């Protein structure tokens, strides 16, 4: 019996190691090293808007990071990306309102209102970049979401760097770890389903 348990343990360990290796090959570490001082735009990945139309804490943190980059003249324009996913409020519109409240003039903010997923955030924002002749961008999202957004940025924009928003004050460390794990598992499952 012990021999069978040992074999099963080794097989499980081998299976887990193989899956981790496949994951690391398919979904590389996010590109966070800046190659230039300034980028044409920032693509801000959408997230939940509250039922009263205000951005969630996670969404606020992403917009605040983008505004910080704009004020530091690291990016010239902001592309707010997100449709009405969780309720009737369009994420891109809530993001733009918040960015304007934080001091960014409306003419420097573009809205992408079709995206219902991370893949669509980068796909449709990449199309906006092409239409506006933007050559490069900073993709702004949460730290736990960087690897997923990086994977789709690699497919949809030529030159980019990733930037992590600060963790919102209400987000506990345990929740952040859980979000990392959940997002990575979701990516891996999607890969096997053919959505990568």
Distance from first to last alpha carbon: 41 Å
The CATH class is Alpha Beta
- H and E order: HEHEHEHEHEH
Helix content: 40-55%
Count of discrete structural domains? 1
- What's the mean pLDDT score? 88
List low-pLDDT spans: none
Protein described:
By secondary structure, the protein is α/β, with parallel strands linked by helices. It has one domain: HUPs (Rossmann fold, 3-Layer(aba) Sandwich), CATH 3.40.50.620. It has six helices and five strands, in the order αβαβαβαβαβα. Strands 3-2-1-4-5 form a five-stranded parallel beta sheet. It starts with a helix and ends with a helix. The model has no long low-confidence stretch (mean pLDDT 88).
Task: Give a concise summary.
The protein is α/β, with parallel strands linked by helices.
Can you tag this structure with a few keywords?
single chain, 196 residues, alpha/beta, Rossmann fold, five-stranded parallel sheet, elongated
How is the topology of this model organized?
Elements: H1 2-26, E1 39-45, H2 57-71, E2 75-81, H3 91-101, E3 109-112, H4 118-131, E4 136-142, H5 146-156, E5 159-165, H6 173-193
Parallel strand pairs: 1-2, 1-4, 2-3, 4-5
């Amino acid at each position: 019996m012990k021999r069978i348990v040992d074999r099963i343990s080794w097989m499980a360990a081998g299976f887990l190691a193989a899956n981790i290796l496949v994951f690391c090959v398919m979904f590389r570490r996010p590109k966070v090293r800046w190659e230039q001082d300034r980028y044409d735009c920032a693509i801000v990945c959408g997230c939940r808007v509250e039922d009263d139309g205000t951005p969630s804490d996670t969404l606020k943190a992403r917009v605040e990071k983008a505004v910080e980059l704009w004020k530091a003249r690291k990016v010239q324009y902001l592309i707010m990306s997100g449709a009405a996913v969780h309720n009737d409020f369009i994420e891109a519109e809530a993001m733009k309102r918040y960015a304007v409240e934080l001091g960014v003039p409306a003419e420097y903010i573009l809205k992408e209102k079709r995206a219902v997923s991370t893949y669509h955030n980068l796909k449709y924002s990449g199309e906006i970049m092409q239409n506006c002749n933007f050559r490069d961008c900073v993709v702004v999202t949460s730290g736990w979401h960087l690897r997923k957004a990086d994977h789709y940025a690699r497919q949809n924009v030529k030159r980019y760097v990733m930037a992590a928003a600060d963790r919102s004050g209400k987000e506990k460390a345990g929740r952040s770890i859980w979000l990392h794990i959940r997002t990575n598992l979701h990516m891996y499952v999607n890969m096997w389903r053919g959505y990568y």
